Structures are given as structure tokens and as C-alpha cells.
Amino acid sequence: MNYRNMIEPYLYGNLSPEDEVAFERQLSRDPALAEEASRRLNAEETLSGMPEYHARKNRPSSGRVILLAGLLATLLVLMGGKCAL
Asked: 50: which residues sit within 8 A by CB, 6+ positions away?
């Protein structure tokens, strides 16, 4: 399964429940995937300041943002802060 292709559908809530669980499990196991997801999330947050962005209907849900932030924080703690985001 190509988890990198699942980042944006995950952030926008477009994964099936089964794929969402699999993706979250992989996020907790794969620091590189978590870092890539964090980069894409940061890009979304940067775009959120632009008026054109607010006109879009599909934006990452706040629940997913919080979950992703928690997973990244956990990974950083487990890695001893060695991962540069």
C-alpha cells in the first residue's frame, strides 16, 4: 500500500474507515511518513491565510489536525527529539 498517496485524502477525511485506521497505524510506525504528513499539513495551514483557500469546501478537519499533531509529538518524544520538522 502506498501510504504517501493517502496523506491528503486522510487530511481531508476522504479515506474509508479501514484505510484511515491503516494509515494512522502506519503514521505511528513511520517517522518519514509522519514528517511528510506534517509538511503537507503545514502547507495547508500556510494556505489557510489566503482568501482563495477559504472558498474551498474541503479543508482538513480539526480532529485530523489534532490527531496528526499528537502522533507527531509522540514520535518526536520516542525519537528523543532527533527528527527535524
From this structure: none
Give every residue of the chain whose pLDDT is below 50, as ranges.
53-54, 85
Q: Cβ–Cβ contacts within 10 Å for residue 65, how many?
A: 15
**What span, in angstroms and rounded, lies between the C-alpha atoms of 14 and 20?**
9
Q: Does the predicted model carry a pTM greater than 0.85? A: no
The residues near 36 (Cβ < 8 Å, ≥ 6 apart) are: 4, 7
Give pLDDT, residue 42: 74
Using DSSP, state whether 82 is helix, strand or coil. coil
Residue-level pLDDT at 49: 62
- Its sign, for the CA torsion 27, 28, 29, 31, is positive
What would the grid cell of residue 18 be? Answer: 479501514
Count CA atoms within 13 Å of residue 66 on its CB side: 3
